[in-house]
Design a protein that fits this description.
By secondary structure, the protein is of the alpha+beta class. The protein contains 11 helices and 16 strands. It has a 6-stranded antiparallel sheet with strand order 2-1-16-15-14-13, sandwiched between helices. Strand 6 and strand 7 form a beta hairpin. The radius of gyration is 27 Å and the shape is elongated. The two termini are about 50 Å apart.
Length: about 400
């Protein structure tokens, strides 16, 4: 072998060695960043629960990650994932209308969480076109799709909008938004007519000024308010209601004259649920999950059964414990690794979450609990999944922890 061949072999060996060294160096570059991120998180929230994982499942930051925590409204991420799995993004809630020979209108609720004034304005002209403009001699409201004794853990008997009862047939999230001045009550929304029941409820329970209150913890009251508002929109659409509004059931054998499909797909409903963190919407959706898989009427037990089966199929039976679908119950418990797994499963639908500067997340807030979970974009690790759970009542700290993750990784 001549000298030239030997030199060529030596150069190739040196080049290969330097190539391997360069690859190894590049692989080791993120290590200081990981240490810096973990130190920053610990300095900000030494007792906080923080978990960050990359798209391969590597744990980049893990602080108190084995401790179960109360998720509050980040529970809605789990509900949204379950809903997309069971119902599908194109699913639409339905409300059915029937008319008997005496022109009594029967309204059968299907648990639509977005039966709001704007939806009633779309619905009413189509309903009037289907039934004609002759006077309706009465309205009967059928809420049998939901059991009368349905109660959601964590919902309390208060006037707060977040404590609104769930119902098969309710309008405006089962709340009234009005302005009270003395005994004078007017609607706080130009799109929502004021009704006699809304006035009486606000006089009895509403504070002075503008506010939103839940309807009383009496399903009949919320049903009658729904009937009044439906009647008002029928009048606006050129129809008329002359008879009483009562609660009852659709007669057997009567076929619907009009079936209203919610104008929003489930994906759009979930986007609004996650954005506004609306407990009422979350549990309406959660209850529909069980009914669609196991048949109506809805029940919390059916939905929990379907949810637990789905969670168990992904190895999450012990990591995610649900009491209901909104996070209002303090008995709901997650582990950080469990929620991170759900975030991995939910990633194709991450666009449903709000966010800023690339990150998308959901907050959770209740007394003594501040949570944040979602996806963050980082320089060295791309998109990561994160879970933050802090005790106390300082809402800004969770965002500072998120910033430390974004900048440190």
């Amino acid at each position: 072998m001549n000298v030239t061949c030997v030199l060529t072999i030596i150069r190739q060996a040196v080049a290969a060695m330097w190539s391997r060294f360069l690859i190894l160096a590049l692989l080791l570059l993120p290590a200081p960043a990981l240490a810096d991120a973990a130190k920053s998180v610990k300095a900000l929230a030494p007792s906080g629960l923080v978990l960050v994982m990359d798209d391969k499942g590597n744990e980049l930051v893990a602080q108190n990650a084995d401790k179960p925590f109360v998720p509050a409204s980040v529970t809605k991420i789990v509900t949204a994932w379950l809903a997309m799995e069971v119902l599908g993004g194109d699913y639409r809630f339905k409300t059915r209308f029937y008319l008997d020979g005496n022109r009594v209108l029967y309204v059968q609720g299907g648990g639509d969480p977005f039966l709001i004034s704007e939806e009633l304005a779309l619905l009413a002209p189509q309903l009037v076109a289907a039934i004609g403009k002759e006077p309706i001699t009465g309205i009967v409201l059928d809420s049998s799709y939901f059991p009368a004794d349905l109660r959601i853990p964590g919902i309390e008997d208060t006037n707060e909008a977040y404590d609104a009862l769930n119902s098969a047939l309710a309008v405006n999230f089962n709340t009234i938004h009005a302005v009270r001045s003395g005994n004078s009550v007017r609607s706080a929304e130009k799109q929502t007519p004021i009704t006699p029941l809304a006035i009486s409820q606000f006089r009895a329970r509403g504070p002075k000024g503008r506010s939103r209150i839940s309807l009383a913890q009496d399903p009949t009251v919320s049903l009658l308010y729904a009937g009044e508002l439906i009647a008002a929109f029928i009048d606006q659409a050129g129809g008329s209601v002359k008879g009483e509004i009562t609660v009852g059931s659709v007669p057997q054998g009567l076929e619907p004259v009009y079936v209203h499909n919610q104008s929003r797909t489930l994906s759009e409903v979930l986007t609004q649920m996650l954005l506004g963190s609306n407990n009422y919407i979350a549990n309406q959706v959660f209850l529909e999950i069980g009914a669609q898989r196991l048949g109506g009427p809805v029940s919390l037990e059916k939905s929990l059964k379907v949810a637990n089966e789905s969670l168990a199929a992904h190895g999450l039976a012990e990591a995610i414990h649900l009491e209901e679908g909104s996070g209002i119950s303090r008995d709901t418990r997650f582990t950080a690794r469990g929620l991170a797994k759900v975030l991995d499963l939910f990633e194709p639908h991450a666009g449903l979450l709000k966010g800023g500067r690339g990150s998308k997340y959901k907050t959770g807030t209740m007394s003594g609990v501040r949570t944040l979970a979602g996806y963050a974009d980082t320089a060295n690790h791309g998109r990561v999944r994160f879970v933050i759970a802090l005790s106390g009542n300082t809402g800004t700290l969770r965002y500072r922890v998120l910033k430390a993750i974004e900048r440190g990784l």
